[in-house]
Amino acid sequence: MRVAAAMAQVEAVKASENEALKRLEATRKEIEDMKAATVEAKKRAEMAEAAKMAVEGELRRWRECEQKKAADAASRILAETESSVESSLRHFRIQMQNSQMKTAQGRKMEKSKTSVLKKTLLPTLSGMFNKEKEPD
Predict the structure, then answer these.
(1) Which string of DSSP letters, residue by residue, matches the chain?
(2) pTM of the model
């Protein structure tokens, strides 16, 4: 009986050892799967980081381009505004000069009309008052 009990005990130990080996193998398999998943996740993270850097670089170039366009547009508008203001000032000065010339010409015309009127009207009026009375 001792031999049978020892044999049964050996069989139980072998079964336990097989059970432990199966669990060990399953754990190793899980570790390998985790390592593979970790490597794959790291690879995807690196690819995502590279894509992020590329997108950020492109966005930075786009912003710089847009800022340059805005600056160019602002300077063009400023130049056009300054040109327009100068043109308006020139136009205003010319109008003022023309207006002053017309006013001066109008005054000269009035003076000459008045002087012509005085020359023609005064002698006739003075002639009427200074005329000697004709004998009846």
Answers:
(1) -HHHHHHHHHHHHHHHHHHHHHHHHHHHHHHHHHHHHHHHHHHHHHHHHHHHHHHHHHHHHHHHHHHHHHHHHHHHHHHHHHHHHHHHHHHHHHHHHHHHHHHHHHHHHHHHHHHHHHHHHHHHHHHHHHPPPPP-
(2) 0.44
